[in-house]
């Protein structure tokens, strides 16, 4: 009966078809084209080459690579769970994006009874998708595809609420999503895995390890994430010099964390050798740590230092904190997202607050009020008119001081972590419901459970050695 | 003698050098730069940043990824035919593009005795290349590189004729190439494999299967195709909102077919497990099904539904139609191109016709006559002058009604399939000629035939266990 | 003691932290934002969408793929040195780029006591990085990460001096970097490997071979290099038609060398089979051979012929020259960089000189003096005013004739090779210092030396067969 309970034949299609009906109905009744996509809204003054698609598509394309290829390969690091890592990432990502288009659409792109759709919505939805995939890292190998879809189904709206509170009420600076993406995703994932605690896995699992080829593929995923990360961090910044800085800082931060990761990996290992898990994960820490201040005038040196700090925290986390969390706090964080997204997200948030407190007109000129729009004077303030002479398009802000803005950042930090942790735990409870095909402890990290896995070559030869006829072998292979 | 007949030592260089001499001669006498590439045609009013290269290069780059990396990895799914899948794809693609530049150049870019060349020709040639590579899928593992080059040599001109008839005389809407690319490629490939029928392969072949690593690599190819498909479907659409919609619809269609593929894979398998072949192929169906209407105002919901429909047809095709074709109709379709490109291409064509019949000025406004240029009023029609007030650049069309346009789409469908099937069969006959190094049935799907394949690790150890000296082993390895 | 000397536990962190302190100090004191990145320098006339980042970022992104993914996979071709190939490439590249930003910054972007930083500096630094990685190919598998960092540490300034002499004094045309990138990198690498000569490796090494999977991964790297090479060759050309031609010629040259490589591989092999090493390397020769003339009006036919010539030279080099160099001249060129970058670089240089000698106003019009800026008339020459009427922005040049320019190209060739060879040999001497963890001959090409390598599946089974308990096996795996 245990065995039967992981059969996907009915469960997966039933859930998928239900989700699809829901999505199609919502699409039919609530989704229409935005004004850059709707043929009817183009007129004789429209310049096709100035369509918004050309500003956002290159970044969208890079983020697609990040989501599907970068995450897909990186999560395929287990010896016998490559299919699961890569294919479930594919499944979850496609669903999460569609679901985020709708949920986020209701919160942010809803007008006149309709969600207005363009490629910019896809980018926003892919940020939500990144959140879901990071959380996925905490439960990798221990969940069925049915559970993963349910997890995405629940996480997307919880995230949308948190995002809505932060964007609508708290109004923070966080171009790289350190708070909303990385910290939220981390604590949601930890909440879920805390509830899904499996004591027996703390004693080790024979499949919970890598192979030479899975390590190579996973590193390839790291390289893809590394290469497109600047596009991720700059996709939602202001155009122009802000976006230029975001690319520069991300690149420098990643470079610093990469070289540091190699050094620390050798230094902290028993035998003075490098560990591929460090090369795959810790190298990326700098991309997160520069996130909250990525578009600010922090200086290239600060980006470099943030990369080194983030990498060090992440590495120490893998080495000392993760085992502690698993053994003492029942938090089995499979991919160590608390190190790569949690600790680094905290550093990023603190760095962002420092950058906010240090930001002044001396450094930014009047464009200070573009990079920090909530510090711009309020409507009616005579200072606003003055600034608008210098920057014609400047919009009225909230007249916040740097200190006030810093407090809002802290408030956002608390809000995101609280909602994430509670949401994650509730999601964990739902995932424990029967009928969701949860794997047994023994069948964790094993593709055999959910996939028809091809025989290895030596298995074929064993069959032949055992006297199977050519036809019998072919039948086994064709299965 | 059989064995000798697959030796490439003379055959392959002889053919390649002959092709290269032909290509060089044609380049010398008939190819020159177009007016965006020719230094002589730039003048003091030229704005370098408005050179056409900047509009098309990003799409060209994405299609390069599709052709060389996406197809290359996807076709490497056989356990022992990874070299063949990836390297023959590389060989065929580079030749097909060069050949298409010339052949398509004569049909479409010929002026004053010269083919005028810019990056836009490369994009067009890569569409032809995609046709050749799809057809290749039908005969994968059963053909020599010599045969594959001959196949490309013949398919490109046959395609160019079909394209010329459709573009010059029938004039259809088919931005994603559902008819010209997918259906043509499918029936050409089926025609070829029909002639190359190998009865013994219907009984199975011990190498006709995947391995864990080949499945992973093939899925990586799928992910690359998935990620760049929007660029493929929008590369040749009108700039502006049309291109914006094409990206949106492709993404939505692919998302829908991906999640559906997982559900159907579990549902239709005997043991309720997922099959990697489905995840690799059927997930992509939505990219084809939205193709013919991809730039039209079909609504996001319709794109989603097309993805689901396409995926379902494709999956049922793999499950029930492919075995039938192989057993009863002598059509051994190795990669199931009839499912992924044929059935989906038909659905796309029908969807395109529906979208054409439903298109009206109420939905599109006056830009209806840009998206459907053949419905624009003819020269001299007073309605044209009226419309030109609304859209200054509008060109005179053919004054077709929606119904007329629908009939032309049907005519193109018939034309493409007929030319493709006949051309494919004739090509198959040519490929049966002697001296083309056709593999024997036993050596199909096996890299040993055409490549020096490195020994596996256990083979090396067997040599050492068998008492070979270090030097002898090194000699074997160095070979 | 020998064994102990390759322990990275102290050596690698010590070197890395020293380098990081140096980099941070230099960043703090000498690096600031350039005028496209500095918020303070934007004003009410700044158009954010015209920020320089949008012109260069797409090319930067492609070159990132080339450096980290293309090189990373290509260099992972050894059976048991995949971690080393891919991860050391990652380490070296990140350090080399940071170091090049600083060193090159002092030579080329230094103003008012500061290096001014934007994404354009990153592109320039990635060209230097490509140089370092090509040289790395000569010593792949025979060097420790400590040695590799030292090599990058020394090669970057030596290169910067050569570049400075060529750019500042000789002033040549070399858009694709045939002389400065490929030839310099080649002779630097050969110089280094000459000094690091290991006689015992000439007798073969049991790990110096590929496996099926490493060959596939390496070919994937080739395909990435192939696909993004046009971006590399055009990244630093003039915008407009020059860049358009550079893309076109690179694509044609690569296509020609690819198909030729397949033909020659079959022709020159003993048994008429293809060799993957040829498909991985020789196919790329055309990208180098078109390099020096890539933006000139050489005609598409010439680009094709250059691809064929380059491929032929490269293939003959692998077949006959490399063994000769290793056996007779003590130059063990691991990846055959002398074939892929040296011989082809020479051909490219000669082709560039021919293209310069043939260039005339008849072919280029007045933009001749933009593509060849040093041939533009000098300040004060009445011809300059005349030309400036035709091309408003034309700057004064050096009034060189074609013949003079050709001589300067030759001078640059000699300068680059001489500096590279001497610099490479001196670097080799430094790398022979003790404490740099140089591998012994037996442990070359083996990841076990510097990485914790996961057990293979059959090794796990052997442990179990040998009576190890589940717990013991888990401990071994967890290590």
TrEMBL record, chains A, B, C:
Compartments (UniProt record): Cell membrane
Organism domain of life: Eukaryota
Domain Ammonium transporter AmtB-like: 25-434
GO biological process, one term: ammonium homeostasis
Transmembrane feature ranges: 12-33, 56-78, 90-110, 122-141, 179-197, 217-240, 246-267, 304-321, 342-360, 406-431
Principal location listed in the UniProt entry: membrane
InterPro entries: Ammonium/urea_transptr, NH4_transpt_AmtB-like_dom, RhesusRHD
Residues in coiled coil: none
Any single Gene Ontology cellular-component annotation: plasma membrane
Record GO terms (molecular function): ammonium channel activity
Key words of the record: Ammonia transport, Cell membrane, Glycoprotein, Membrane, Transmembrane, Transmembrane helix, Transport
Transit peptide is among the record's keywords: no
UniProt cross-references to Gene3D superfamilies, sorted A to Z: Ammonium transporter AmtB like domains
Presence of keyword Cell wall biogenesis/degradation: no
Membrane topology, as annotated: Multi-pass membrane protein
Family named by the database record: Belongs to the ammonium transporter (TC 2.A.49) family. Rh subfamily.
Role noted for this protein: Functions as an ammonia transporter. May play a role in the elimination of ammonia in the gill.
PANTHER family (UniProt xref): AMMONIUM TRANSPORTER, AMMONIUM TRANSPORTER AMTB-LIKE DOMAIN-CONTAINING PROTEIN
This protein's name: Ammonium transporter Rh type B-like
Gene source species: Astyanax mexicanus
Source taxonomy: Eukaryota, Metazoa, Chordata, Craniata, Vertebrata
Gene that encodes the chain: RHBG
């Amino acid at each position: 009966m245990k065995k039967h309970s992981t059969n996907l034949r009915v469960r997966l299609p039933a859930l998928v078809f239900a989700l699809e009906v829901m999505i199609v109905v919502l699409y039919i009744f609530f989704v229409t084209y935005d004004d850059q996509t709707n043929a009817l809204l183009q007129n004789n003054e429209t310049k096709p080459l100035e369509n918004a698609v050309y500003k956002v598509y290159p970044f969208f394309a890079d983020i697609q690579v990040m989501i599907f290829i970068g995450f897909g390969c990186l999560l395929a690091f287990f010896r016998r769970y490559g299919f699961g890592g890569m294919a479930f990432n594919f499944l979850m990502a496609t669903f999460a994006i569609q679901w985020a288009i709708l949920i986020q659409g209701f919160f942010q792109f809803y007008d006149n009874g309709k969600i207005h759709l363009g490629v910019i919505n896809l980018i926003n939805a892919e940020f939500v998708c990144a959140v879901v995939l990071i959380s996925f890292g905490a439960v990798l190998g221990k969940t069925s595809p049915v559970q993963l879809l349910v997890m995405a189904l629940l996480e997307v709206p919880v995230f949308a609420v948190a995002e809505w509170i932060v964007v609508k009420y708290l109004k923070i600076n966080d171009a790289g999503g350190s708070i909303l993406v990385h910290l939220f995703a981390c604590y949601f994932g930890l909440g879920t895995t805390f509830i899904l605690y499996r004591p027996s896995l703390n004693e080790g699992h024979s499949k919970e390890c890598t192979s030479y080829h899975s390590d190579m593929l996973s590193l390839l995923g790291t390289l893809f994430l590394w290469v497109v990360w600047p596009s991720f961090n700059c996709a939602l910044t202001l155009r122009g010099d802000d976006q230029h800085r975001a690319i520069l800082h991300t690149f420098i931060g990643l470079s610093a964390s990469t070289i540091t990761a190699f050094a620390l990996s050798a230094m902290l290992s028993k035998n003075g050798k490098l560990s591929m898990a460090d090369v795959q994960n810790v190298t990326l820490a700098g991309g997160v740590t520069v996130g909250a201040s990525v578009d600010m005038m922090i200086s290239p040196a600060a980006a470099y230092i943030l990369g080194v700090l983030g990498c060090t925290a992440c590495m120490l986390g893998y080495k000392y904190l993760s085992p502690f969390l698993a053994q003492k706090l029942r938090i089995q964080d499979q991919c160590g997202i608390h190190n790569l997204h949690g600790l680094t997200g905290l550093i990023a948030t603190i760095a962002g607050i420092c950058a906010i407190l240090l930001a002044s007109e001396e450094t930014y000129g009047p464009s200070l009020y573009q990079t920090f729009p909530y510090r711009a004077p309020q409507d009616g303030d005579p200072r606003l008119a003055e600034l608008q002479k210098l920057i014609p398009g400047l919009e009225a802000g909230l007249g916040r001081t740097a200190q006030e803005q810093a407090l809002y950042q802290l408030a956002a930090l608390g809000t995101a972590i609280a909602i994430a942790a509670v949401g994650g735990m509730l999601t964990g409870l739902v995932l424990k419901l029967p009928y969701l095909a949860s794997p047994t402890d023994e069948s964790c990290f094993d593709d055999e459970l959910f996939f028809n896995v091809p025989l290895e070559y030596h298995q074929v030869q064993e069959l032949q050695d055992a006297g199977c006829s050519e036809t019998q072998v072919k039948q086994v292979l064709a299965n």
